[in-house]
Amino acid sequence: MTRLSPVGQRPALPAWRACAAPLLAALTLGAAAFQPACAADNWPAQPIRWVVPYPAGGGTDVVARTLGQAITPALGQQVVIDNRPGAATIVGADAVAHGKPDGYTLLTADTATLAANPSLYKKLPYNADKDFVHVGMVARFALILVATPNFPARTLKEAIDYVQKNPGKVNFASPGAGSPHHLAMELFMDQTKTRMTHVPYKGAAPAVQDLLAGQVELMFLDLASGQQNVAAGKVRALGVATPRRLTALPAVPTVAEAGVPGFEAYAWQGVVAPAGTPKPVVTRLNAELVKALKSADVQKRFEGIGVEPVSSTPEEFAQYAHAEAERWGKLIKAKGITVD
């Protein structure tokens, strides 16, 4: 016979069930805790999908494929690159943010994904702070300020003077609103107290094409796409947005030494996984990426496309991404930049 409980409460459990309930709960929790640990111990037991939020063939794609091939032997499983381009990395980020946190889904997350998009878009299908776990940084793309050969100014100081005397009349290109190249120019204008007209394109290729044709006059290019055009004389390099001069372009001064103290801007990227991915998996992935980034083969491949290999711990990458989000977020809000 079941004893009645006070109104609003469930009937009291029989004595034997009351005693067994805590034990059953403990066993259930223990099984739940055991499964992720067991899964992490056996990881990886199947191919790993690495989502790249850009088209195949570009610098980001090459970086991911190079690293994927480098870590495959150590993991004993194939790393499969899945290109999901579109909407300033949002398409790929959305796919991974809601993916299964089992260590079999990764994402190349860059300046746009983690630092710019949260301030550029009123609504995002992912939360940069909550939906991902940081695995580690992998690369930085140096940015170069270039001008068309027929641009009146031949040095950065001359360019600043010219733009100051012609506010709003000089056009600059970017691969898209809110891209690292666009934000670098917004930072440049902010620090030089100049004003130019932004001409956004759908990707770097058409922007560079119009730059070479003289349809736009200035642009921040990443070294990967700018180095050959500078060497061929198709564009004139005015300055590099790095703390030190680039080995690939030793004659080109930094923007800072050419008259804009403290100026620095990169297009950077790292690897993230869905939030909840087991920590042992994240730790192992980070270790393999760090090894790969230090290998001679990977460094040679990166150097060939003008990319700087950068490794970090998961915690260092998280701190860096958050600092960059704060830095660029302030600029985006101060300039009133929106894309939707």
UniProtKB/TrEMBL annotation:
Q: Which InterPro entries match?
A: BUG (IPR005064), Bug_dom1 (IPR042100)
Q: Tell me which Pfam families the record gives.
A: TctC
* Taxonomic path: Bacteria, Pseudomonadati, Pseudomonadota, Betaproteobacteria, Burkholderiales
**Which family, according to UniProt?**
Belongs to the UPF0065 (bug) family.
Q: Which UniProt keywords apply?
A: Signal
Region forming the signal peptide: 1-39
Q: Does the keyword Signal apply?
A: yes
- Native species of this protein? Cupriavidus basilensis
Keyword Methyltransferase: yes or no?
Answer: no
Protein name per UniProt: Tricarboxylate transport protein TctC
